[in-house]
Amino acid sequence: MAQLDRRTFLAGAAVVAFDPATSRWLTTLPENTGAIRIPHLDGELVTDEASLTEAATDYGHLAHRLPRAVLRPGSVDDVVTVVRFANEHGLTVAVRGQGHSTYGQAQADGGVVIDSRTLATIHEITPDHAVVDAGVQWLDLVRTALADGVAPPVSTDYLGLSVGGTLSVGGIGGASQHFGLLVDNTLELDVVTGDGRLVTCSADAERDLFEAVLGGLGQFAVIVRATVGLRLAPTSARVYTLTYPQVTDLTAAQRTVLADGRFDYLEGQFVPTDDDDFAFVLEAGAWFTTEPPDDDTLLAGLTPSGIDVVDVPYFEWLNRIYETVEQIEALRLPGPWLNLLVPDSATDEIVTELLTTLTPADAGGVALLYPTDRTLITRPQVMVPEGPVFFLLALLRAVSPPDDAEAERLIAANDALYARVRAAGGTQYPVNALHLSTADWRAHYGDRWPLVRQAKDRYDPRRVLTPGQGIFG
Predict the structure, then answer these.
(1) Whether pLDDT at 51 is above 50
(2) Considering only CA atoms, which of 413, 348, 411, 354 is closest in space to residue 61?
(3) Of 21, 105, 181, 362, whose Cβ has the fewest other Cβ atoms within 10 Å?
(4) Which residue, among 434, 464, 441, has the nearest Cα to 104 in the 3D structure?
């Protein structure tokens, strides 16, 4: 979805008051009632059916929790105002960027959803950093930065995500093997804490808050602005698609190229075949501007059964799946996604087990598998397995045609696979359709759980923010 200007939303009836006796928002202020006038907003708070319905769904189309109001902020001050108001009147607040959560994580049942798409200004591009509002899509940041010859060192596969939403989770991609996650390349944040304070934080100022928010799943503060790192960008990408007959052949080749760092980009896929099985593909990229890479050097020792090599403009490569994702989103298919982080030592066994039952239909047509260097993941809220290397295993499922029973079956399968991975020392990249209790979250954070609870008590003591994650019950 394109970035949206605040004026786009001015057709709805704006809220002017709140009735604490009924927890209802009012578009008029009746006389002789206990209704409370809403403080001044530069944007508006709306309760029309279309706005509430949009805020009660997401890319997964599995959870539908209706808020009582949607804020279209016209400024950061609006976010401060609404979070403080929520604290005073026992409300919950969630932030919705581009709506690409899969299981209601950005929903607020009976609360207020902040639609960050109206906070979408790119404030500054320099040779080494960009300052952007949280509602900016990575697509717009990348396109703007490339005009100055720079780009973020890591990009997620789909550029239609918001900056704030991505930094709340982590931001993993094919260049994470060299640069870690997007949160590892974030320099400064402006946030509104759960108790309504606007704070600028970084590694040098309010560091505890900075580290809590990056990968913090929206539990401690609302990201409203971010300073993210940039680096010199190439103009072209040479993309290698290497096919292997067995998944263990794929993972062996991936370990080889991860260890020597020969490619700038490294991912992998299970690709459905005509006989309802999978081929296993190593997808790699080498960037260049003038001198193309040497194919023989890059392919040495990899021995795939099939090779395809193509040169594309760098931006075209980064944005390669945008239109496809938009088309899928328009179909409104249930999407019980699962993204797991598997210890290298257990990956071959777990994936081999999985492939004894996984079909292309169950995988939704898209399954990813690729390794990353754990030492580059520096943000403490992002929970990754022990050991020098872990693999991302992602089943980007879609249920077509829509079928509630089939969606529930796949969520149950997600639960079982997550339990298997967790027993092997793995974790989740938390954008999933999983049934998670507070006990599950406690296990996810492990020894860090007391610090997570302390941060919640310190920055969001009334448990206002992001109830859809279900972390604290």
Answers:
(1) yes
(2) 411
(3) 21
(4) 434
Element (DSSP H or E) covering residue 66 = none
pLDDT per residue over 10-24, tens digit each? 344 678 888 887 878
Write out pLDDT tens, residues 444-459: 999 999 999 999 999 9
The model's pTM is 0.93
Query: Cis before residue 385, ω within 30 degrees of 0?
Result: no
Query: Between 135 and 273, where is the model more confident?
Result: 135
Indicate if the pLDDT at residue 307 is higher than 80.
yes
Residue with structure tokens 């704030």? Answer: 164
Strand partners, 390: 343, 372
Residues 6+ apart with CB under 8 A from 339: 392, 393, 394, 395, 428, 429, 430, 431, 432
Pick from 121, 127, 119: which is nearest to 9 by CA? Answer: 119
Note whether 110 and 23 are within 8 A (CB): yes
Q: What is the mean pLDDT of the chain?
A: 94
Of residues 363, 340, 295, 407, the one with CA closest to residue 62: 407
- H-helix or E-strand spanning residue 449: helix 449-459
How wide is the angle at C-alpha 459 spanned by C-alphas 458 and 463, nearest 5°?
100
Nearest alpha-carbon partner for 244 in 236, 253, 235: 253
